[in-house]
Amino acid sequence: MPGDATLVFIAISGIFAFSFYAVLVAGQLSLGQAGFAAIAAFGSATLAPAPSQVGDVPALLIAVAIGMSMGVLASIVLGLPTMHLRGVFLAIATLGFAEAVRILIINMESLGGAQGMPVPKVVTPAIAWVFLLLVAYWFWRQGPSRYGRALAAIREDELAARAMGIDVGRHRLQVFVTSGALAGLYGVLWAYFVRLIAPEDFSFTTAIDGLVTAVVGGSTLFVGPILGSIFLTLVPDLQRAIGIDAGWIRPFLASLLLLLVILFLPGGLASLVPRRVRMPAVTGTDLGSEAAGLETRQHPADGEPVVRLRGLSKDYGGVHAVRGVDLEVTGGEILGLIGPNGAGKTTLVNMISGLVRGTSGTVEVLGIRPGRTAVHRVAAAGVSRTFQQSRLFPRLSALENTLVGSHVLTRPTFVRRMLWLPSARRDEQRALQHAARCLRRVGLADKAAVPAKALSYGDQRRLEIARALAADPSLLILDEPAAGMNHVEAAGLSDLIGALGRDGLTILLIEHNVAMVMRTCSRIVVLNFGEVIATGSPEEVAANSEVVEAYLGSAEPEGEPR
Amino acid sequence: MDVQQLLNGLFVGSIYALFAIGFTLVFGVLDRLNLAHPAVFTVAAFVGIELVAVGGLSIWAALPVVFVVGGLLGLVIEQVAFRPLKGRADAHFAGLISSIALAGMFIALLQWRYGPDTKRFPAESFPETTYKVLGAQVTGVQVAILLITIVLAVGLHLLVGRTRLGRSMRATAENPTAARVVGVNVDRVSATTLAISSALGAVAGALFAMNVNSAQLGMGGAIELKGLAVIVVGGMASLPGALVGGLLLGLAEVFTVQYIGSSWRDLVAFGLLFLILVVRPQGLFGTRKVREV
User: Fold this and answer.
1) Higher pLDDT, B114 or B288
2) Where do runs of H (alpha helix) occur along A25-86?
3) Which domains does chain A have, with CATH numbers?
C-alpha cells in the first residue's frame, strides 16, 4: 500500500500532467508550466493568510484561488505575444519564460533566493485527490463537447479547423490559459505539501517530468495524466521494494520504461483503456425534416449576389497568379471554374474563402470582405469549402469530422455538459443527427466510425463534402472534388451537386473533369494565366476557340504534380 | 572595452556555437528536436577525461576519439529514438520524449561507470604556454577551442554546400518524400546527419570540460537550454545563425557577469530568446517558410 506522501505525489503530479494535457489536446506544446507553477507557489505562499490564523482548509483554498489567478494572469501575459508561434517555437519560448521566472526568483531576496521559503504543510492525500478528481472531471466533460471537438480539430489540421469556422487564435489562448491555471494549482499544492519551496523545484527538469507524465499517460483520453502519474510515481517505489534502485539502476530503468512506452504504446497508457465507439442514434430518416435539423440559414434567393469580385489580383513575388478578375456569382447558381494547371483557380477560391488576401481589387462574399475578415468569420457567414488536397482531420472518425463541420451552427456545450444540463445532451444529439444526415447524403453512413485517414481516397473526397455541407453553407466551394474518382463515382457526385443546387445552395465547382463540369454547371468561367478568358453556358464555352486552344485541346489534364 | 572579457566570451561562445550547430543540423534536416544531444555532450566530457587520465592520450589525441564516439552515439540515437517512430502521426512529440528517455539512459550509464562526482583532467594535461593578445592572457586550450570550432563549422558548411551527401541532406530537409522519389536514401541521410550532429556535440562537450577542467553529470542540462536559445536566436535550422548566435550569447553572458552580476548571467539567454521570438520569430538568419494551402 503506497504511503501518504506517494498518494499526494501521484495526485499533484497528475494535476501537473493535466496542465500539459490541456494544451496537448489542441496540438500545442508549451513548456512554461513550471514558470506558472513557480509564480503561483511563491505568490500564494507570500500573499495567502497563514493556516494558523484562518484554519488549514480556508488558508489552502485562498492560496489556490490566488495561485490559479496568478497562473491565469501569467499565461495571458505570456500567451498574447507568443500565440503566433507554432510547434517547437512555442515550446522553446515558453521554456525560456519559465527559466527566466526561476532566475528572477533566485535573485529576489524577499522570496528567500536560491534557498527558497518555508510554507506550512496543509495538503493531505484526501485534499490532493479531491483536486485531482475535479480536474479530471473538467477534462472528462470537455472531451466530447463542441469545445473539445474544436480543439481536436485544431490539433489535427489548424487550417482546416479555421476554414470550418473555428476561431483558432481564441481556442489556442483558452487552452494556454487553462494550462496556466492548472500549473498554478499544482504550484500551490506542491508548496503546501513539501514545507520548503525553492526555485529549483520549478526547473526545466520539472517541466520535462510533467510533459513525460502527460505523454506516457496519453493525451487522447482524460484518464491519461492520472495513469501516467500513477505509473511514473510507482515505478521508483516498486524498484525500491524489490531492491533494484542502487544509484544508476533507478534512473536507467525509469528511462528505459519511458522509451518502451513511447515506442510501443503510441497513444500512451490511456490507449490500453477500451473505448466504446459512440454511434449516433439516428432518428427521423427523412432528409428534409427541418424540425430536428440545425439548418436555419436563409440562403440568398435566386439572382441575389453571393460573390462579387472586382479587379481582383494576386501576385506572388513576380508571379501574377490572378490578374484583374471580375466575377459575379448569384444565388442558386452552380458555377464551374476551369482552366489549365497553374491558371490561378485555387488562388482565386482561396481569396474567396478568405485564406489568401488579394494584392489588389475587392472581394465581397455574402456581405462580408474575405481577406480583411478572419477566416473563421467568413465560414460563419456561410462559406464552406473542400480542399484540393484532402485536409480532413485524419485521426477523427468520419462522424467527428462532420460534427466539426457543424461548428458554426451549434451552440457551445462544454459548460452545460459540466453541469449536466439536459439541454446540452439535446444539442449534442441534434448535432449528431445532423452530422449523420450529412454523411448519409454523400453515401458514407456506414463509415461513420472509421477514422478519416483509414478511408479510401474517394471516400475521403466525399467526407470533405459532408463536412462542408454540415455547416449548412450558402456558398459551397468544391476544389476538384472528383479528382481520383472513376466515371461512376463522378456521375454520382454530379447528381449530388445538382441536388444541392436545387436546395438553394450556391456552388462554385473547380474541376478538371470537363465532362462533369459541362454536365453539372449552369455557367462556366475559364481561367488561363490568372485571367478570365471566357464566361458562358457550357455550350458557349465549349465553342469558344480560345478556350479550346488553351485548355480543352491540351493533351492530358489529369495527374498533375503539385 | 575589456579585451580579456571579450576573448573569454568568444571562447565560451564558440563552445555554445559548436553545440548549437549540431542541435540545429538535426532540426534543419530531419525536423526533429534531438533532446539526447546534451547527453552526448556530457558523455563526451567524461570519455575525454578518461582517455587522458586512464588511456594516457594527450588532450589533442583524445579529441578525434571523442568525435568518433559521438558519431557512434548519434547512430544509436537514430536507431533507437527516431527510426522506430517513422510514419507516426505524433512523431514530433514522441521523438522529443524518446530522445529524452535515451538521454536519461546515457546519463544513468555514465553514473554507473564514473559515479556521481565531478571528474577532472590530470593536472599535467594542459600545455603551459600562454599567449598575450592585445594585453589579454590566453591559454593554448582557449586558442584551440576557437580554432577547432571554426574548422568544424567551416567543414560542415562545405559538407552541406558542396558534397553529394550535403545535397542529399538539403533535399531531405526540403521534402523527405520528394527526396526519396528522386533516389535519396533518406534513412541513411538521417543516420549520417545524427552521427555528424552528435560528433560535433561530443567535441563541444570535451572542449567544455577542458575549458573549465571539470565534468559533471548535470552539465548537459545547462547547455541544453542555452543551445535551444541559440538556435532560435540564430534562426532554426540555420548553421551560420547557430555560429553567430553562440558567439553572441557567450559575449553577452560575460559582459552581464561583469556589469550586472553573476546571478543574472543565465537570464541573458532567455532575454535574447524572448526578444527574438516576439520581434523576429524566424531568427537572425532564418527564413520564414511560406505556408501552403
Assistant:
1) B114
2) 33-47, 51-54, 56-82
3) 4-271 (1.10.3470), 305-552 (3.40.50.300)
Q: How far apart are CA A212 and CA A231, in angstroms?
A: 11
A96 reaches B (C-beta below 8 A): yes
Q: Determine contact: A212 vs chain B, CB below 8 A.
A: yes
What is the C-alpha separation between A214 and A351, in angstroms, rounded? 40
Q: Which of A22, A15, A23 is nearest to A41 (CA)?
A: A15
Q: If contacts are CB pairs under 8 Å, which of residues 113-152 in chain B contact chain A? A: 115-116
8 Å CB contact of B101 and A255 = yes
Which of A88, A93, A106 faces B263 most closely, judged by CB atoms? A106
Q: pLDDT at residue B47 above 50?
A: yes
A450-501 confidence digits (pLDDT tens): 999 999 988 999 999 999 999 999 999 999 998 888 888 889 899 999 999 9
| CB count in 10 Å sphere of residue B56 | 10
d(C-alpha B292, C-alpha B281), whole Å = 18
Percentage of residues in chain B having pLDDT higher than 90: 53
Q: Average pLDDT, stretch B173-177?
A: 88
Task: Point out which residues pair with B136 in neighbouring strands.
Answer: B133
**Phi and psi of A330, rounded to 5°?**
-115, 165
CA–CA distance from B192 to each of A162, B25, B33, B98, B196 (Å)? 39, 11, 16, 19, 6
Backbone angles phi, psi at B149, to 5 degrees: -60, -45
| Set of cell numbers at residue B195 | 552521427
Averaged pLDDT of chain A: 89
User: Could you tell me if A239 lies within 8 Å of chain B, comparing CB atoms?
Assistant: no
**Which of A82, A99, A252 is the closest to B108 by Cβ?**
A252
A82 touches chain B (CB under 8 A): yes
Which residue ranges make up each domain of chain B? Answer: 19-218
Question: How far apart are the C-alpha atoms of A354 and A366, rounded to whole Å?
Answer: 12
SS3 A510: strand
Residues of chain A above pLDDT 90, percent: 64
Cell numbers for B256, please give them: 552581464
DSSP A275: -
Judged by DSSP in three states, B68 sits in helix
Sign of CA dihedral A451, A456, A457, A461: negative
User: What whole-number distance in Å separates Cα of residue A37 and Cα of residue A187?
Assistant: 4
Residue A546's contacts (CB-CB under 8 Å, 6 or more residues apart) are: A533, A534
* Residue count (chain A): 562
C-alpha cell at A210: 510533467
Nearest-5° Cα angle at B276, B272 to B282: 140
pLDDT score for A278: 57
With H, G, I as helix, E, B as strand and everything else as coil, classify residue B119. Answer: strand
Q: What confidence tens digit (pLDDT) does each residue in B247-279 have?
A: 999 999 998 888 888 878 888 888 888 788 777
- pLDDT range class, residue B98, cuts 50, 70, 90: very high
DSSP A297-340: --PPPTTSEEEEEEEEEEEETTEEEEEEEEEEEETT-EEEEE-S
